[in-house]
């Protein structure tokens, strides 16, 4: 395992350990609704409330209006705040308004393209690069492995001419230039269309659905970079009832600017026009119980973002690194997020003991910088490698040699018995009660296992028979061979070719479905919804409904 893969796996494993160690906590969000037409959230008391002006910095950092109160940790305190709101009159303590601008985002680089394609198109980083490669080979976009946000003067001029002809109000006085990060190699310009005037309607026919969707993303982002900044009117209202303060935040987009093509702004939340000291009418005061959530697992695009931020890898290695971790079963994709396997956690734990520096993102980032300096002739490679070998590699190798025997002894030794909950089901061999073993794949699920010496006794719950059963052997499963597809009299709603009945097995049960018999076209995007499942009432599709003759 290389240094980039090791550091990336460590990021995934550390997040998994944070999730496992997380203890959820109940809290309450307290709010009031006013007859004037807005909702305010509990902010604090007048004894502890900071000056309203101190929130300006936070307002500059976020576009989202506040939709939750300061956390209240007990229901008794939440009830007390609601009672306070109901017992005291409410008045406006302060009204603040200001105009903020949001500058256009930079053009795509490899990492940002993978992140956006993952969020908007549900593409994995690997698929994003495959589709981008097709667009590049077709001459539709520039090179897709780049860390530079710079755009050529020729493209900027072409984009400005397009805006002048189609959207003159969005044309800024001068071309917008973005700066790349300090670590960017800038061997290529940003990812952009090669022809800003190319009509997208013609491409819809020439490209596949995935290629066209990705091209549109790149085209919109590239145009947005050369537009005017968006202008937003932000409002903050602070009200008071007794000693309790309530806060409402809103915003209205005054000028869309670049967001006309690349909308990353939240929806308008309009607040009424009020004056300081004005009385407001309470309609209701209430609270809502919530639970703190553990940090989420990384999706593939999010992991790419973290790798870029920490300086791990290069644009050309983001997708292959994640793909390698999946292929070697160090991580697996569970509900569109990356979860380390038992093997991945063990490997990471071993590397923490044997080569801890290898897992540090700073170590990998510093080595990337040193290699860049060598490539640019700013550092002598022989001197660097000699020093690196003496200062790091030899000591690290000695440490690893000492740790490996200890680790092998620890892992080969019998593990102490875990404290497992006892079930009410007895072992069919020794008649002792079976233990409940938590499932590693499904939360809050378990299987039964004998811990009294019958090593082969394992039972799983059957939803079909509603009882604990011995899993079917592989030989029994192999005895049921799926039948070949049989043509039917039903016609495909897309191409009018006959539908075929395809039989298969799922969870040990024979199943069948209808799909298009045209093997050349049924994998195309327009055929993705053409699948009918057998129900008690006949053939049914989640997208197309019931199938009629």
Distance between the termini: 57 Å
- State the CATH topology of the largest domain: Topoisomerase I, domain 3
Estimate the strand proportion: 15-25%
**Overall average pLDDT:** 83
Helix-strand makeup class: alpha+beta
Label the overall shape.
Answer: globular
| CATH architecture identity of the largest domain | Distorted Sandwich
**Which strand order spans the largest sheet, edge to edge or round the barrel?**
6-3-4-5-2-1-7
Largest sheet data: 7 strands, antiparallel
Q: How much helix, percentage-wise, in residues?
A: 25-40%
The multimeric state of the shown protein is single chain
Uncertain spans, ≥5 residues at pLDDT below 50? 48-63, 410-417, 473-483
- How many domains? The number is 5
CATH superfamily of the largest domain: Topoisomerase I, domain 3
What is the count of β-strands? 20
Radius of gyration: 30 Å
Discrete helix count = 15
CATH class of the largest domain: Mainly Beta
């Amino acid at each position: 395992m290389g240094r980039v893969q090791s550091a990336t796996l460590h990021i995934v494993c550390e997040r998994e350990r944070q999730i496992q160690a997380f203890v959820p906590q109940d809290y309450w969000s307290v709010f009031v609704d006013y007859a004037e037409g807005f909702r305010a959230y509990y902010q604090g008391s007048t004894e502890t409330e900071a000056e309203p002006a101190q929130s300006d910095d936070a307002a500059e950092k976020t576009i989202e209006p506040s939709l939750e109160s300061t956390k209240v940790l007990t229901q008794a305190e939440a009830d007390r705040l609601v009672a306070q709101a109901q017992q005291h009159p409410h008045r406006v303590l302060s009204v603040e308004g200001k105009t903020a601008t949001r500058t256009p985002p930079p053009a795509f680089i490899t990492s940002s393209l993978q992140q956006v394609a993952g969020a908007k198109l549900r593409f994995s980083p690997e698929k994003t690069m495959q589709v981008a490669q097709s667009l590049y080979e077709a001459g539709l976009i520039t090179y897709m492995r780049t860390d530079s946000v710079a755009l050529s003067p020729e493209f900027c001029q072409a984009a400005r001419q397009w805006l002048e002809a189609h959207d003159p109000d969005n044309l800024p006085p001068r071309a917008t230039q973005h700066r790349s990060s300090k670590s960017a190699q800038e061997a290529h310009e940003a990812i952009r269309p090669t022809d800003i005037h190319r009509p997208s309607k013609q491409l819809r026919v020439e490209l596949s659905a995935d290629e066209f969707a990705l091209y549109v993303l790149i085209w919109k982002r590239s145009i947005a970079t050369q537009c005017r900044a968006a202008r937003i009117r932000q409002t903050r209202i602070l009200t008071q009832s007794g000693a309790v303060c309530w806060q409402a935040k809103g915003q209205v987009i005054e000028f869309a600017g670049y967001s006309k093509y690349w909308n990353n702004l939240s929806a308008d939340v309009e607040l009424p026009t009020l004056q300081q000291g004005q009385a407001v009418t309470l309609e209701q005061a209430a609270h809502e119980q919530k639970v703190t959530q553990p940090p989420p697992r990384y999706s593939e695009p999010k992991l790419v973002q973290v790798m870029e931020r920490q300086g791990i890898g290069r644009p050309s290695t983001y997708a292959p690194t994640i793909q390698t971790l999946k292929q070697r079963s160090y991580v697996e994709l569970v509900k569109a997020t990356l979860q380390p396997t038992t093997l991945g956690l063990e490997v990471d734990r071993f590397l923490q003991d044997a080569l801890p520096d290898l897992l540090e993102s700073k170590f990998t980032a510093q080595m990337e910088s040193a290699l860049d300096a060598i490539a640019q002739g700013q550092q002598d490679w022989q001197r660097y490698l000699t020093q690196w070998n003496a200062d790091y590699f030899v000591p690290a190798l000695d440490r690893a040699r000492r740790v490996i025997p200890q680790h092998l002894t620890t892992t080969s030794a019998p593990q102490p018995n875990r404290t497992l909950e006892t079930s009410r089901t007895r072992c069919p061999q020794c008649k002792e009660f079976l233990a409940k073993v938590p499932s590693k794949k499904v939360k809050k699920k378990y299987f039964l296992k004998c811990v009294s010496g019958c090593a082969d006794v394992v039972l799983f719950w059957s939803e079909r028979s509603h009882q604990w059963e011995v899993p079917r052997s592989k030989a029994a499963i192999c005895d049921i061979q799926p039948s070949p597809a049989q043509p039917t009299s039903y016609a495909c709603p897309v191409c009018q070719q006959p539908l075929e009945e395809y039989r298969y097995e799922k969870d040990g049960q024979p199943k069948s479905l209808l799909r298009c018999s045209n093997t050349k076209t049924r994998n195309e995007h327009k055929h993705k919804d053409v699948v009918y499942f057998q129900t008690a009432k006949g053939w049914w599709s989640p997208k197309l409904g019931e199938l009629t003759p």
